[in-house]
Write a structure and sequence with these properties.
The chain folds into three domains: about 150 residues, Rossmann fold (3-Layer(aba) Sandwich); about 230 residues, Alpha-Beta Horseshoe (pyruvate-formate lyase- activating enzyme); about 55 residues, OB fold (Dihydrolipoamide Acetyltransferase, E2P). The chain is about 35% helix and about 20% strand. It contains 15 helices and 21 strands. Bound molecules: S-adenosyl-L-homocysteine, iron/sulfur cluster and FE3-S4 cluster. The site of iron/sulfur cluster has 10 residues, from helix 7.
Length: about 475
């Protein structure tokens, strides 16, 4: 059983809510947590919440009413770090009005900056890296005694396998399951190997039991998370049997046919036909693959140390559409990497067309201290040009997304209802297997967390609009 149910005495009855009721506080301290960056960070905050709740804390949504403010941070681009620093200014206001409130920086910025963070940001009391969350209660105690609490040790083993995450801000329908940590790839632009350490895979049995208990608690979708899920590899210490990502995917799919399985992120160098065939074999494994290309040009890919080239990537795209004709593929792209020419930029644009991405996350290159690119190459593309290339990428992707969605008009899809649409509680929102958001008028005989057949009548470049047909 998940922690959120075990803790029922101190939580609201509302599904998925783990925030305390004033009457049940019983002298417990309150923590408030904000998360930035990738899904891994959001997933880690659920582990942090679990550790804190075992140690006498309850979660609050009121920053101004908390004894401990935590911010789980991202270092991927300069702007991500700027946002965090801005939030720290806001937390300072809380410290001024509520004496004794502690502020802790968790995650990638904590790991990247270490003690520098304590020097630069005087209000910070705790600095805790991604592999040191078990140490939080001890560090908090030290901070309460007026010392600065810091632990940024990276680990080769830590996967938090035994910790049942507390599902913060959950819709009670979809949840993340972290299957591995760290990254061994060393893409030259990327800070993650430095902030998250070496790659390690989590015990497969603990993943399956987490999926099972989520299903038992009413969840209907899990997303398996890792920086490079295709290199998941776990050896059963008792039998010596090796579980690869395709094996794991299959086992999670077998937990229950009504449990949808998603995963992120796939690396083009590692995604195998076996993985794609496994997706094809199980109806509940979603037909959606996030396969970041970063650049469509082979020379730039080499500089990026992505270890595949344009032809290799096209071959993977071809294999996916051959085995899974209905699969939607999405991507990440970086505009204006070191020394990228206009022709090389054109190769990224043509790849968007070739791969026919349903959507993409698009960025301009932001040099990160300590990365291979920062050490070896000059960040020589002027900001103005980076931004212009990025806007060309965004414009083309939004046309391709629009056309991709238009092809769905008239089709009907099995949709998992995730909640009400942002705009109105007369509309439900959910996603189809291809990970497209569908909004449709609420029907009386279907509830959140159920599957429903929805026919698409209209689209925007980001959303499908439809009506229930069951
Ligand atoms: N593990 C994933 C990516 C994680 S980071 C993968 O390998 O695909 C998410 C995305 O941020 C990356 O895919 C990349 O597009 C972008 N990114 C990473 N470092 C960046 C940098 N220095 N500047 C701009 N974008 C960056
Ligand atoms: Fe970064 Fe590359 Fe690892 Fe992704 S695969 S996290 S881009 S180093
Ligand atoms: Fe950011 Fe760290 Fe994720 S740098 S993208 S939060 S792994």
């Amino acid at each position: 059983m998940s922690k959120s149910l075990l803790e029922k005495t101190i939580v609201e009855e509302k599904q998925g809510e783990v925030f305390f009721k004033e009457s049940n506080l019983q002298g417990k301290k309150k923590f408030y947590v904000e998360s930035y960056g990738c899904q891994m960070n959001f997933s880690d905050s659920e582990i942090i919440a679990s550790i804190l709740m075992k140690n006498g804390f309850v979660a609050t949504k009121e920053m101004y009413d908390s004894d401990l403010i935590l911010i789980n941070t991202c270092s991927i681009r300069e702007k991500a770090e700027d946002n965090v620093r801005q939030r720290l200014r806001e937390f300072d206001k809380v410290k001024k009005t509520r004496k004794g409130t502690l502020v802790g920086v968790m995650g990638c910025m904590a790991e990247r900056l270490k003690t520098k963070l304590l020097e630069q940001e005087k209000l910070v009391d705790l600095v805790v890296g991604p592999d040191a969350y078990r140490d939080l209660p001890k560090l908090i105690e030290a901070a309460e005694d007026g010392q600065k609490g810091i632990n940024v040790l990276l680990s080769r083993e830590e996967t938090y396998a035994d910790i049942s995450p507390i599902r913060l801000d959950s819709n009670g329908v979809s949840a993340f399951i972290s299957i591995m940590r760290g990254c061994d790839n060393m893409c030259s632009f990327c800070v993650v190997p430095f902030t998250r350490g070496r790659e390690r895979s989590r015990n497969a049995f603990s993943i399956l039991s987490e999926a099972q208990s989520l299903f038992d608690d009413g969840f209907r979708e899990v997303t398996l998370l890792g920086q490079n899920v295709d290199s998941y590899k776990w050896t059963n210490p008792e039998t010596g049997a090796i579980v690869n990502f395709a094996d794991l995917l299959k086992q999670v799919a077998l937990v229950h046919p009504e449990l949808r399985v998603r995963f992120s992120t796939s690396h083009p160098k590692d995604i195998t036909d076996q993985v794609v065939e496994t997706i094809a074999s199980y109806e509940n494994i979603c037909n959606y693959i996030h396969l970041p290309v970063q650049s469509g040009n082979s020379r730039v890919l080499k500089l990026m140390n992505r270890t595949y080239d344009r032809d290799w990537y096209k071959d993977r795209i071809d294999a996916i559409y051959r085995i899974l004709p209905d699969c939607a593929i999405s991507s990440d792209m970086i505009a204006g990497f070191c020394s990228e020419t206009e022709e090389e930029h054109q190769d990224t644009l043509s790849m968007i067309k070739y791969a026919n991405y349903s959507m993409s996350y698009m960025f301009y290159y932001s040099e990160r201290p300590g990365t291979l690119a920062q050490k070896k190459y000059e960040d020589d593309i002027p900001l103005k040009i980076k931004k212009r290339r990025l806007s060309e990428i965004i414009k083309l992707q939004s046309e391709i997304s629009m056309a991709h969605n238009q092809r769905d008009i008239g089709k009907s899809f099995k949709v998992l209802i995730e909640g009400y649409s942002k705009k109105s509680d007369k509309h439900y929102k959910g996603r189809n297997s291809q990970n497209k958001v569908i909004v449709f008028p609420k029907t009386e005989n279907h509830n959140i967390g159920e599957y429903i057949q929805v026919k698409v009548n209209d689209v925007t470049s980001a959303t499908l609009l439809g009506e229930a047909v069951t």
